[in-house]
Model the fold of this input.
Amino acid sequence: MTTTTRIVLAERPVGEPKDSDFRVETVDLPEPGPGEALLETLYLSLDPYMRGRMSAAKSYAKPVEIGQAMVGATVSRVLESTDDTVAVGDVVLGYGGWQTHSVESTSYLRVLNPDALPVTTALGVLGMPGFTAYAGMHNIGQPKAGETVVVAAATGPVGSMVGQLARLAGARAVGIAGGAAKVAMLTDEFGFDAAIDHRADDFAEQLAAATPDGIDVYFENVGGKVFDTVLPRMNLYGRIPVCGLVSGYNATALPDGPDRMGMLMGRILTSSLLVRGFIQSEFAPTQMATFLSDIGTAVANGSIRYREDIVDGFDQTIDAFRGLLTGRNVGKLIVRVAG
Ligand SMILES: NC(=O)c1ccc[n+]([C@@H]2O[C@H](COP(=O)([O-])OP(=O)(O)OC[C@H]3O[C@@H](n4cnc5c(N)ncnc54)[C@H](OP(=O)(O)O)[C@@H]3O)[C@@H](O)[C@H]2O)c1
Done:
């Protein structure tokens, strides 16, 4: 009998998640049945959407129930398999959640090649976040040569890919990040044309200077003050793929100030803006294979760059997750659980 140590949701967090909102427990796992494999988690992905799963509010996916292990993508080693599509010793991408071991259906697993690229890339640049940027830009943003693309959370796995895809399309890429070190990384490491700090007092002036011709594509990752500052600079026929609103994920109330809905709708009307929300899973069935092939090649030959923030130890998971929503992570946040 194999046991797993897992982090379950003990209470629904109000505001920033607290340690007491979770419980760590060790339980027996069932033997893998037909078409299942027993896995040891090597790496666990931490992603902003997990904050939504902790809440009971209506969303595109069901909430994690109280007492249930937190969900999440994992890179794992196969310990036992009842199916010849995965072999003992294979390293696979799965959805094991916040736990050290799992039993999963082999139909959900993707066997990785550890000799090709670091297996952690399957959680970031070549995983769900990288694909999110690709899908949002390809289907909604559709940048053209000479246009200006703006994205925030720009050193993260979604934002850094957005900027690089904008550059590949011949557009001017403007990245927004928190703090001087991240801002420098945008131009020095990811090749953004300009980079600005959303925490700076003169953020609006910096944005105006970085976007002298206005903004054609605003890839919305954060909402809040950044969105308020970007909106008046949107050009005629601008596109806004609405991907995430991370500035508000821990919010317990609407922001202060006057109701800005009228201004927003007015701007959408007078600038003929396209504002389109999306969840990456809408496009994955038809576009993931092309993404993995095209972007996989670009990552392997270094023309697409990525950065990972790997935190050591399963016991660091809750604290690392808190840091994701406040900008403590630098790059794709991953927990090394074993290996
Ligand atoms: N629609 C989809 O299918 C889909 C899929 C994946 C991800 N997403 C969304 O994409 C966004 C980026 O995800 P990611 O995985 O790449 O995250 P990430 O960039 O690794 O981490 C989140 C970042 O958000 C920034 N942030 C936090 N609070 C902020 C605030 N008040 N104002 C401005 N920035 C703030 C921080 O960066 P700084 O330190 O630079 O501020 C933080 O590092 C999130 O909104 C996520 O929910 C959507």
About this structure: The pocket of NAP is lined by residues 47-49, 129, 132, 152-153, 155-159, 177-178, 182, 198, 221-222, 224, 226, 243-244, 246-247, 278-280, 324-325, 327, 329, 333 (CB under 6 Å). The chain is about 25% helix and 25% strand.
